Amino acid sequence: KMAADTSVEILQKVLENEILQTTKVVEEHLDAEMQKLDQMDEDELECLKQRRLEALKKAQQQKQEWLSKGHGEYREIPSERDFFQEVKESKNVVCHFYRDTTFRCQIMDKHLTALAKKHVETKFLKLNAEKSPFLCERLRIKVIPTLALVKDGKTQDYVVGFTDLGNTDDFTTETLEWRLGCADIINYSGNLMDPPFQSQKKFGTSFTKLDKKTIRGKKYDSDSDDD
């Protein structure tokens, strides 16, 4: 027991030291920034302020442009023809191929609705697979639900079933967000090397680095009886 207590104490000291070091680095960085600001003259400060305002204005204009193209909400498109038009006008598109009779599509809907509001930089769509046989054939969609991740008009990756999401119906919105971040289809602010699965030990290492070809091959095999 004493040995265990000692190792806990050592670990605590190491952690405390780490925290102190990190705090010191942050403080030094802040001090340097403050010093830089103190040494600036009025013209430089005005210039900095203008640049900041320009950047904010540009970001706001970009957001308005996205919203005008149907970003910011998760919506259904009526036909295959609409799919081509939608992906042509947006850089990043997530399209959910669903079927009314598949319960897991409703689970996917719930998470995509939340992510569409959060990630305005990406367009989130859904398309009834039964009404789009040509697209399903062309994109080789065999499992429902499947998300097609389209970048610059080209389908770059697929999320097939729930295999990449911890193999559970109870995956979190954060888990799907992480998976879309791995495909660089959204601006992901978390750590891609740290997937937010419920059971980290079981799933944490399997999907940290995504190799598209092998993942796609594996997914079709393992999820084929999911739909």
TrEMBL record:
<keyword id="KW-0206">Cytoskeleton</keyword>
<dbReference type="GO" id="GO:0030496">
    <property type="term" value="C:midbody"/>
</dbReference>
<feature type="domain" description="Thioredoxin">
    <location>
        <begin position="53"/>
        <end position="181"/>
    </location>
</feature>
<dbReference type="InterPro" id="IPR013766">
    <property type="entry name" value="Thioredoxin_domain"/>
</dbReference>
<keyword id="KW-0597">Phosphoprotein</keyword>
<comment type="subunit">
    <text>Forms ternary complexes with the chaperonin TCP1 complex, spanning the cylindrical chaperonin cavity and contacting at least 2 subunits.</text>
</comment>
<keyword id="KW-0539">Nucleus</keyword>
<keyword id="KW-0963">Cytoplasm</keyword>
<comment type="function">
    <text>Significantly diminishes the chaperonin TCP1 complex ATPase activity, thus negatively impacts protein folding, including that of actin or tubulin.</text>
</comment>
<dbReference type="GO" id="GO:0005813">
    <property type="term" value="C:centrosome"/>
</dbReference>
<dbReference type="GO" id="GO:0005737">
    <property type="term" value="C:cytoplasm"/>
</dbReference>
<dbReference type="Pfam" id="PF00085">
    <property type="entry name" value="Thioredoxin"/>
</dbReference>
<protein>
    <recommendedName>
        <fullName>Thioredoxin domain-containing protein 9</fullName>
    </recommendedName>
</protein>
<dbReference type="InterPro" id="IPR036249">
    <property type="entry name" value="Thioredoxin-like_sf"/>
</dbReference>
<dbReference type="GO" id="GO:0005634">
    <property type="term" value="C:nucleus"/>
</dbReference>
